[in-house]
Each structure stands twice: as structure tokens, then as C-alpha cells.
Design goal:
Layout lengths: L16 E2 L7 E9 L4 E8 L3 E2 L11 E13 L4 E4 L3 E4 L8 E3 L3 E8 L7
Antiparallel strand pairs: 1-2, 2-3, 3-9, 4-8, 5-6, 5-7, 5-8, 5-9
Length: 119
């Protein structure tokens, strides 16, 4: 299976839902997903004051690209703050977070796998 074929549509038609885990204030608007492949395209919202420390650092088995639309995020392990207009490309296995967002943050995120064609 793969992500569905979708033509342009208003992203506001997709409601924000709480993300899995124990962090209040972390919401996602899933625009397209492949549940079998475990990948998705989404808009992630950190409401002001969100702290993802309970989730710890994240390590995925898929590629993840993130663009900060508005606001800012602080990576608590790196002790660095990233702001609107910044971009990250994370290969599988790259640790990141946990995060804190004092002012709130909105990101656009694409998760995918690269099929090597082997096996």
C-alpha cells in the first residue's frame, strides 16, 4: 500500500487530533498516510508550553523531513532553538528531541521509506 492519491484540497478540512503518547498539547493534522508502511505527511502543532520530555528522544526507522512554518522549538538535548523557516532532513536512526516550545510551533512533516529494491 502507499499514501493515497489526492488532488489539492484545503488542509483546514482535516482536523487536528491528539498525537499518540502522553504529551498534552501535541496535535497532528494527518494529510496523507500509509498505515501499513507507517509513513505520513502531516502538520504538527505544539501548543504554547508543550514539552515532549515524557516521550524522550525519538529515533525512527524511516526518513523524516520537517519544515517549521511558524513559532519555534528547542531541542532539549542539543540545547538549540530552531525557528520558522528552518528545515531538517533526518535519516533513519537519527536521534532528535525531546522538544519544548514556549511560544508554540507549527511544522510540516513528511515521513517516507526508501525501497532499495533488494529483497
Amino acid at each position: 500500500m502507499s499514501k493515497p492519491e489526492l488532488e489539492f484540497f484545503p488542509v483546514d478540512d482535516v482536523v487536528f487530533t491528539a498525537c499518540a503518547g502522553s504529551v498534552d498539547g501535541l496535535q497532528e493534522r494527518v494529510l496523507a498516510a500509509d498505515p501499513e508502511g507507517g509513513v505520513a505527511t502531516r502538520i504538527l502543532c505544539f501548543v504554547p508550553g508543550t514539552d515532549t520530555t515524557p516521550n524522550g528522544s525519538q529515533i525512527h526507522d524511516f526518513w523524516e523531513e520537517v519544515y517549521i512554518i511558524e513559532g519555534s522549538l528547542t531541542d532539549l538535548n542539543l540545547e538549540k532553538t530552531f525557528t520558522a523557516g528552518m528545515y531538517a532532513c533526518r535519516p533513519p536512526g537519527m536521534a532528535h528531541g525531546p522538544w519544548r516550545s514556549e511560544e508554540g510551533c507549527l511544522t510540516f512533516e513528511v515521513r517516507y521509506r526508501i525501497n532499495s529494491g533488494l529483497g
